[in-house]
Specification:
This protein has 458 residues and is α/β, with parallel strands linked by helices. The chain folds into 3 domains: 128 residues, Rossmann fold (3-Layer(aba) Sandwich), CATH 3.40.50; 145 residues, Succinyl-CoA synthetase domains (Rossmann fold); 160 residues, Succinyl-CoA synthetase domains (Rossmann fold, 3-Layer(aba) Sandwich), CATH 3.40.50. The protein is built from 16 helices and 19 strands. The strands form 4 sheets. It has a 6-stranded mixed beta sheet, with helices on both faces. Strands 14, 15, 16, 17, 18 and 19 form a 6-stranded parallel beta sheet that branches. α7 packs parallel to α9 and α11 packs parallel to α16. The longest helix has 20 residues. The radius of gyration is 25 Å and the shape is elongated.
């Protein structure tokens, strides 16, 4: 059965809805009321209304079958609620409840009971032991995180699916704080029914998604996952952060979501074969996702660097030399074009140091020359915006170059709060930005390697 009702429901019931601030059911109802345009049905036999909405004693009492039921009651009660949902033909359930196989022997019986109920039905379930779902377009927000404690997600083109609610929420909170938007977020927990493979299959056809970021601890059907992710990687990048790489990490994963993390060497080989872009930490998951979702295909691995701080050009060159990228060797024609606009005491080379008194217009001239040069495949623009000559028009220059170039363009603006304002504005307007240029180089290498993989299989 389709997963569409998870993401585009017309009605949502919340079992375990509460009037008590701080309770999961209270937060979910509050979040939905603020964002969701469809019908909301709180379910709690102790109340007649919650947050101004009519409250029902059970899902059976609602005058229609909800498209999605969010369950936030203890496991023993939750299993009975699932039976009721299946009985009336609820198409989708988001199971926030924990207390199943992740707690070991005590929860295994409940897990098996729940699995049997779902397996023999037409109802699809995300969870249990998950954080919920967020969808920008439809206003679905079944996460039990209060809005005043985290940044509201921004709409964008990256879908994030996470086995861990904590990891997923931290990534979208950080993404929002730096101007990176997402299309959909799913915390899928113990994946008793809907797996990461099912979600990838749905997202493959999602017109709002241009890249998928995944945090996983383990997969239940490795062969099926590998086949699916290989197909998707031919159309859009899939960036994966895999945990449980060590023996102790694997044991921690089992106690977290009940997952068998498996041998990491096997995963690593499978990822490489399937074109997965692998991240080593949360920061890289976000860095690579934003770069690959916002960048055009590079034709090669040659990078040009323009900066007003020569030292950062040197550091970036050192980083490039450690990767599969190359510093672009400038043609005589490109050198002559650059010399027209360089100061007498400037040195035309790559990296190109415009020196400390460079103005935004000089950046424009240099970047336009680079993106028009046949020997350049990618451009890294590094700027110290704190210098006297660098005014806010630099933002317009970099944004304009990026959006009008057929080549990938990324930026790095170093420094504190003033620099961060520039980075966040540019990020929000579609320019992949980095505080440190070395991280920008690493992201460009992932971009190059991903498209190289696609080209080899086309």
């Amino acid at each position: 059965m389709s997963l569409k009702k998870f993401f585009e429901p017309e009605s949502i019931a919340v079992v375990g809805a509460s009037k008590t601030p701080g309770k999961v059911g209270n937060t979910v109802v509050k979040n939905l009321k603020e964002t969701f345009n469809g019908e909301i049905f709180p379910v709690n036999p102790k109340h007649d209304d919650i947050n101004g909405l009519k409250c029902y004693s059970s899902v059976n009492e609602i005058n229609k079958v909800p498209d999605n039921v969010v369950i936030a009651v203890p496991a023993k009660i939750a299993n009975k609620v699932v039976e009721q949902c299946v009985g009336i033909g609820v198409p989708t359930i988001t199971m926030l409840t924990s207390g199943y196989e992740e707690i070991g022997e005590e929860g295994e019986e409940l897990h098996e009971e729940l699995e049997k109920t779902i397996k023999d039905s037409e109802t699809r379930m995300i969870g249990p032991n998950c954080l919920g779902i967020w969808v920008g377009d439809s206003g679905v927000d079944s996460m039990f995180l209060p809005g005043y404690k985290m940044n509201s997600p921004l709409k964008g083109n990256i879908a994030l699916i996470s086995q861990s609610g904590a990891v997923g929420s931290a990534v979208i909170d950080k993404a929002s704080s730096i101007g990176v938007g997402i299309s959909k977020f799913v915390s899928y927990g113990n994946q008793i029914d809907v797996s990461e493979t099912d979600l990838l299959e749905f997202l493959e056809k999602d017109e709002k998604t241009d890249a998928v970021a995944v945090y996983m601890e383990g997969v239940k059907n490795g062969r099926k996952f590998l086949e699916k992710v290989k197909n998707i990687s031919k159309k859009m990048p899939v960036i994966v952060l895999k945990s449980g790489k060590t023996d102790k990490g694997s044991k921690a994963a089992e106690s977290h979501t009940g997952s068998l993390a498996g041998n990491y060497k096997v995963y690593r080989g499978a990822f490489k074969q399937a074109g997965v872009v692998e991240a080593e930490c949360n920061k890289e998951l976000l860095d690579y996702s934003k770069t690959l979702s916002k960048s055009k295909k590079p034709e090669g691995n040659r990078v040009a660097i323009v900066t007003n701080g020569g030292g950062f050009g040197v550091l970036s060159t050192d980083t490039i030399e450690k990767t599969e990228l190359e510093i672009a060797e400038l043609s005589d024609e490109t050198v002559k074009e650059l010399e027209k606009n360089m100061k007498d005491y400037g040195n035309v080379s790559n990296p190109l140091d415009l020196i400390g008194d460079a103005k935004p217009q000089e950046y424009r001239q240099a970047m336009e020359t680079f993106v028009n040069a046949d020997e350049v495949d990618m451009l890294l623009c590094i700027s110290l915006v704190q210098t006297e000559q660098m005014d806010t028009t630099f933002i317009d220059v970099l944004e304009d170059i990026k959006h009008n170039s057929d080549k990938p363009v990324v930026g790095s603006i170093l420094g504190g709060d003033y620099s961060k304002l520039h980075r966040d504005y540019l990020e929000k307007n579609g320019v992949p930005m980095f505080e440190y240029p070395e991280k920008a180089v690493e992201a460009l290498e992932k971009l190059h390697n991903y498209y190289k993989w696609r080209e080899e299989r086309s």
